[in-house]
Amino acid sequence: TEGQTLTLETTYGNVPGYGYALLGEIEVDGQTMHALIDTGTSAFFLVWDYWFRATHYLPICNYPNIGYYKCPGSCVPSTISTITYVDQTTVDIFEHQGTLQHRGAII
Known about the structure:
- The protein is mainly beta.
- It has one domain: Cathepsin D, subunit A, domain 1 (Beta Barrel).
- The chain has one helix at residues 49-55, and strands at residues 10-15, 19-28, 31-36, 80-84, 90-94, 100-102, 105-106.
- The strands form two sheets. Strands 1, 2, 3, 6 and 7 form a five-stranded antiparallel beta sheet that branches. A two-stranded antiparallel sheet has the order 4-5.
- Strand 1 (10-15) and strand 2 form a beta hairpin.
- The longest helix is centred in the middle third of the chain and has 7 residues, at 49-55.
- The mean pLDDT is 77.
């Protein structure tokens, strides 16, 4: 439900090119990933595998601590929204529906 807090078990891992980060394990559409936890945002988003492969020169296997979301079927970006952080970093996001699981429960 929108607006609820999701409590995750966390690990502290090195993300190449980013540094050490707080990560939480989740399962989305049957894919296990370690999401970067950002306590300063109310937005929940995943890094799209297609985008990551198109924009990073290192192979995705060089980033073992994080999972990148692969759409189970076709994934067509709908309306794109931009989130701008205090340091002026921006993230373009689009809505996509899937199944989020944690501790075996569908959320």
